[in-house]
Amino acid sequence: MTSGCIILSTLFLSGCAGFHKLDNPYVFSERTALYQSASVAGKSETFAHDLCVVSKDTPDSDDAVTAEAAAVFDLSDNTVLFAKNPFEKLYPASITKTMTALLAVKYGNLSDEVTVTKDAVIKESGASLCGIKPGDKLTMEQLLYGLMIPSGNDAGAAIAVNMAGSVDQFAQMMNDEAKKLGATGTHFVNPHGLSDEDHYTTAYDLYLIFNEALNYPEFRKIIGTVQYKTSYQGGDGKTVNATWKGTNWYMTGERKSPEGLTVLGGKTGTTLSAGSCLIMGSSSASKKEYISVVLKAPDHAGLYDNMSNILNKIVE
Predict the structure, then answer these.
(1) N or C: which end of the chain has fewer CB within 10 A?
(2) Is residue 97 annotated as a catalytic residue, yes or no?
(3) Which one of the listed residues 3, 14, 151, 273 is annotated catalytic?
(4) 273 noted as active-site residue
(5) Euclidean distance between CA atoms 269 and 92, whole angstroms
(6) Closest residue by Cα to residue 292 from 55, 87, 71, 67
(7) Which neighbouring-strand residues pair with 196?
C-alpha cells in the first residue's frame, strides 16, 4: 500500500473485514522444536543449522513495542535479538509480495516478455496499483519493480498468471515454496495480499521467506530501489512511460533510520485487518546484516516507531 496521508477509508479498504487476529496461534514449544539443532531437540541439524532460531532466552517483552508481532534476526550470527509473538498467525497484507518476488527471481526468467491479461484488473477499492492494463507488454523484471516499488497488486496478478497459468495455481506454488522453507504457519491464496481470511503467515515465517530471497542479487537490487522509471508497450501499441515510487519511509526520507544502520530495502503492507506492516533488511557499519519485521502496528507512524525501537536493540 502507498504510505502517504490518505483518507482512512481509502487507505484500509483493501483489507479483510474487521480488526481481529487469527485463531490458534502456535504453541512456542511445538513450533521451535522444528528448528532446533540435533543437540537441543534430537532433530536433524541439516535444516536449521544456518537459520536464526527463537529460544526461550530470546527477549520478547518491551512496552515500547506496541505492534502485535515484531522480531529482529541477526543473519551473521544466526541469533534472534528480539521476538514478540513470532509464531502468531497474522495477515501479512502486501508483505505477501516478498514470496511472489522470490518465486519470480528463483524460477522465472526476468527477460521474458509478459502480455498482461484481464486477471491483472484489481477492482477492490483502495488497492495499490502500478497501473498496468490488459494488453500491455512488459518484461518480468519490469513487473517485479511494479510489484515491489509501488506495491502493485496488478503486477502481482500478472506475474502469477504468467508463471503458473492462474492465480490459484500460483498460490499453490507459493505454499509449496513456504513448506520447503519451513514456513509451516503460512498459507497464501493470492500473490499480493488482498482480502482473504485464509491468507496468513507469521513473523518468523516471513523471516524465512525474506532470508531466502536475499540470496538473489536481483531481489536485493529491486528492494533497494527508491524510484524506478521505465517504458513499455501499451495495449494500443503506444509507449507507456511510468515512474514508480517506493513506500518505505526509511528509504524515502520520511523517517530516519537508527544510527549506524543502512536500510537495504524491504516491503511494506497495510490493510484493515493486517494493520501496518514492514519487513526489511539492514546492514551495519561492520557489514553485518539483519532482517527485521513488524506486523499489525496501529498506523504508519506507529509502524516506524516500532521498527526503530526493535532496530535499536542491535548492539555491535
Answers:
(1) C
(2) yes
(3) 151
(4) no
(5) 7
(6) 71
(7) none
Alpha helices in the chain (DSSP H): 8-12, 28-32, 38-41, 97-107, 140-148, 153-164, 167-180, 203-213, 217-223, 249-252, 300-311
Rounded to an integer, what distance in angstroms lies between the CA atom of residue 108 and that of residue 198? 26
Q: What gap in Å lies between CA 102 and CA 84, rounded to an integer?
A: 25
Using CA atoms, how far apart are residues 226 and 296, in angstroms rounded to an integer? 24
Residues paired with 291 in a beta bridge? 73, 281
Q: 97, 267, 296, 308: which one is catalytic?
A: 97
| Partners of 84 in beta bridges | 70
Smallest CA-to-CA distance from 12 within 270, 221, 193, 191 is with 270
For residue 281, give the H/E element and its range.
strand 275-284
User: Is there a contact between 181 and 257 (Cβ–Cβ < 8 Å)?
Assistant: no
In Å, the largest CA–CA distance within the chain is 63
- Is 111 assigned a catalytic role? no
Contacts of 264 (CB under 8 A, 6+ apart): 220, 223, 224, 280, 281, 282, 283, 289
**The model's pTM:** 0.86
- Kindly name the residue from 3, 14, 94, 195 that is annotated as catalytic: 94
Q: Output phi, psi for 105, to 5 deg.
A: -80, -25
Beta-ladder partners of 74: 79, 290
- Residue among 116, 78, 156 at smallest CA distance from 240: 116
**Residue 213: CB partners within 8 Å, gap ≥ 6?**
98, 101, 102, 105, 219
